[in-house]
Amino acid sequence: MRKALLAARRALPDATRAQWDAAIAQRLLDWCAQENVEELGVYWPLHGEPDLHGAYAQLAARGVHLSLPVVLEKHAPLAFSDWRPGEAMVKDGMGVAVPAELRLRPAPATLLVPCLGFNEQRFRLGYGGGYYDRTLAQLPRPRTVGIAYACLAASFPNGEYDIALDHIVTEGDLL
């Protein structure tokens, strides 16, 4: 299922992706304003995930404290580093962009979670590494907002260690 969802996401036309990214970004901005979000863990897009950099810049301009997830060790929860749009980035050992100067901080109160797929119960399908599941199993658990394209909704059972997300934002809806 992961391969099929990844292929479907990568096959989206650039114009469609740009339109959907803008819609997701606006829904996220509206939700953050409504919920008075003061700190937000964001993600750097990989493999065709929605690119929300424009929203990140607007959130930072509003005074929202942003952080990016960082893998410090395999089979462990994610760590988080303070981040500001435009700062220098480097690739980590897994090829993921992280701040060149890590400024580690506690997990943010609210966390964006990119979804390769998701189901009606708000469980996400990721890439299988378990980083977000291990992170969400820790206390205090951040409020979670899954980010995905609506066309990636799928039917799949949740696993023993899977944790449902609090919300999912797509270009068409907020679940």
Walk me through the structure.
The chain has 175 residues and is an alpha/beta fold. The chain has a seven-stranded mixed β-sheet. Strands 4-5 form a two-stranded antiparallel sheet. Strands 8-9 form a two-stranded antiparallel sheet. It contains four helices and eleven strands, in the order ααβαββββββββαββ. The model has no long low-confidence stretch (mean pLDDT 94). It starts with a helix and ends in a 6-residue tail after the last strand. A hairpin with a 5-residue loop joins strand 4 and strand 5. The protein is 26% helix and 22% strand. Helix 2 runs parallel beside helix 3.
Give a short summary of the structure.
The chain has about 180 residues and is of the alpha/beta class. The chain is about 25% helix and about 20% strand.
Give short descriptive properties of this protein.
175 residues, alpha/beta, seven-stranded mixed β-sheet, two-stranded antiparallel sheet, 26% helix
Termini distance? 22 Å
Radius of gyration (Å): 15 Å
Structural class: alpha/beta
Number of helices: 4
Structural shape: globular
List the uncertain runs.
Answer: none
Strand arrangement across the biggest beta sheet: 6-3-2-1-7-10-11
Task: Report the β-strand fraction as a percent range.
Answer: 15-25%
Order of helices and strands: HHEHEEEEEEEEHEE
Chart the SSEs and their pairings.
Layout: H1 2-10, H2 14-34, E1 39-41, H3 53-61, E2 65-70, E3 79-82, E4 89-91, E5 97-99, E6 104-105, E7 110-114, E8 117-118, E9 124-125, H4 131-136, E10 143-147, E11 167-169
Parallel strand pairs: 1-2, 1-7, 7-10, 10-11
Antiparallel strand pairs: 2-3, 3-6, 4-5, 8-9
Helix pairs in contact: 2-3
